[in-house]
Amino acid sequence: MEPIAIVGIGCRFPGNANSPEDLWTLLKEEQDIIEDIPQDRLAQMLPAHATEAQRKLLTRQGGYLTDIDRFAASFFDIAPKEARYIDPQQRLLMEVAWEALEDANQVLDEELKAQTGVFVGLWTNDYETYMYNTHQPVNLYMTTGGSHYAASGRLSYVLDARGPSMTVDTACSSSLVALHLACQSLRAGECSLALVGGANLILQPYITLGYARSKMLSPDHRCKFGDTQANGYVRSEGVAVVLLKRLSRAIEEQNTIYAVIQGSSINNDGQESGSLVAPSLEGQISLLRTAYRVAGISPGQVCYVEAHGTGTKAGDYAELHALGTVLREGRAPDNHCRIGSVKTNIGHTEATSGLAGLIKVALCLKHRAIPASLHHQTPSERIPWHGLPLKIQRHFEKLPSEEECLYAAVNSFGITGTNVHVVLRTPPAGNTAPTAETPRHSLLLLSAHNKHTLHMLIDHYSAFLQSVRQNQSISLDDICTSAGLGRKHMPYRIALIASSKDDAIAQLQTLNEDKEGVYIKTARLPPVFVFGESDADFQVFNSLEQDPICWDICTRCHAHLRKYTNWSLLDLLSTNRKKYPVWSASMKRVVTFVSQAAFIALWHSWGIPLEMTIGYGVGELAASYATGELQLEDGLFLAFAGKRRTSHMPELLRSSSSSGLVKNATNGVSQKDAFQSLVAPYHVTTETPVQDMVHPSDTTAFDTWNTIAVEQPHSEHTHSPEELLGTINELVALNYSVFIEVGSGTHSQLSSILQNSLKAHMKTGHLLYWPLTKEDQRLNTLHLLRYLYLSGCSADWKRFFKGRRDIQLPKYPWHRERFWLEEY
């Protein structure tokens, strides 16, 4: 049975534990965050008709979240009218699920959306009760907003996740049962990624009244697990989401792994306890033995168990007795298993409590340490400790060295007998080493849903970069890779090219001072690449040798040309060009075409879309090659030849779909003869258009060659400055706004035409000259990618950002507004 990896965690727990790091700090510092009920909750928790006895029961301490009435509705494209009807448990699940995805640096692309499952554990529906008590007219928003089924369905909808989706209610064990089902679904191949969530908010008095009267709640508002003073639990709020993958996939995708789920088991007590709401010793023993059999380990290998640990007398007795009975199997007499409960820190988060315990265990395994379980002074005399290999964890303790695989487990029980036990282990050693800081430029991409949030994000990244300035294990490349691959790219964007962390910090601070200097994604159409008849400085071509993809194109063309020339293309493209003090027109044409073809190959390797191209002069050949309408060898032939015998050209050239360059359809005409007959310089004013030469006469697909087509890919060929201006005017009229001029420089005729057309037709347009530098091909590419990103286009970032190593980046800063259904 394949293990399951925990690769992402999002959470909201009392005490402002709004991330796994916050929760770990809370646990390490042995914080007890139970507090008085907030004033803004009293109105809901104290009905107007409440008696004095009820008031005493309800004005009790607990663990409470803040700002539960606030929600980033616009981020999830939810209208304000609907948002106020949505249970805040559902709202928080959406935000926390997003944070779990970001924690894992996981973006849901189209393929992964179809393979993502959602599994939610819920119990209470206090907001639904509240809505119906407001006497508002009942509508559809109320039914979907307050119902359990909508919690998972809504999360699947806003994420466009199309795998299994379900909400589970087994009371306090709900979220861990959901996790068990998610693991089964992953192993069965029903999904490749699973979001498992739980939520619990205390918005109505009824459960509190019922449990207090039955003496399930502690009068002094503390969970004292395993202690002689244990007298019940304290209610608490919490929301948690974990992201799961099969371990093999997580390793393959180089994810950071918190812990590995080795196996799990669920059962129900049935009638063994003699009561619907009483725990069963026999049921729990059976559960534990099944879980360890499924996990394939001996119970004696487990070093720590996060107990259900509510601090009720009956619950503690059954749980500790069952754990001791099973965990002694295969265990040395002096090897006690440590036991603890997160409920002693944050209270009982009920439906979320299983995930709260799981997250604590995952953090223990990640940090190889166990924090203290609080409020344990005197072991309960009801527990036969002398016969049980158990020890309540009373202080922070480091676990053995990195080499040893550690096993731990988490227990969770529902009030009506549904039990869960999950076995975890430390993750395998990381398979990615830190990227060393090197003196090269990196591309940092940041985006947000609106301008306000983007400026908040800039602040967060500036602070983050300052916090890791001296950390040599986190390179700028690692940060940029995680940001590029691990975040969704939204409409409001910035992109910066930085040579160091300090450089990035300085640029971010400058950007945030300029509140208007934020780029908005506006382009709806792909960029237009304009290839001209370049007169650029040929030293630009020195950079081709720096990139293996570019140089591969050059060597292929060199090998082909050697059959027909006595000069070396590779020499022309390198510092050896001094061997040729005078360049022929043919040399210049070939070097221009080959360099443009090399750039095209490089862009294709980054996933940059070349769906619309314009060609002018020799640039016609590159434009056709870019969109697949002309093979590399065909373009090279025409660039070299420059002029053709028009009587032979239709016979000599094959279509771009053919496998060869020259078709010898005329007796006695060899390829070498054909090349030698084409000696005059190539120019666009030739009698026969290039497209007539490179496509067979019976082809109808190119009947509209000189018409602007919206369907891509497409290349537009022009034969005079006037035609070029007309072509660009038509493209601008069709809302093409992003133009990249390749190889002509800022003072070319093309540049002037582009600038004038954009100025005449629209207020904003984007024009980039490429390459920008003669020396650094990588920097050229970064500038192009930055330009495309800011103008709204994109690239296949998985191709560009290679050598992935996940870095924990700042969370998305929510722009939240108040949504609450008021009394009618």
UniProtKB/TrEMBL annotation:
InterPro entries: Ac_transferase_dom_sf (IPR001227), Acyl_transferase_dom (IPR014043), Acyl_Trfase/lysoPLipase (IPR016035), Ketoacyl_synth_AS (IPR018201), Ketoacyl_synth_C (IPR014031), Ketoacyl_synth_N (IPR014030), PKS_Beta-ketoAc_synthase_dom (IPR020841), PKS_NRPS_Biosynth_Enz (IPR050091). GO terms for biological process: DIM/DIP cell wall layer assembly; fatty acid biosynthetic process. It comes from the Bacteria. GO terms for molecular function: 3-oxoacyl-[acyl-carrier-protein] synthase activity; fatty acid synthase activity. Transmembrane segments: none annotated. Residues 1-426 form the Ketosynthase family 3 (KS3) domain. One of its GO terms (cellular component) is plasma membrane. It holds the Pfam family CurL-like_PKS_C. Keywords: Phosphopantetheine, Phosphoprotein, Transferase. This is Ketosynthase family 3 (KS3) domain-containing protein. It comes from Thermosporothrix sp. COM3.
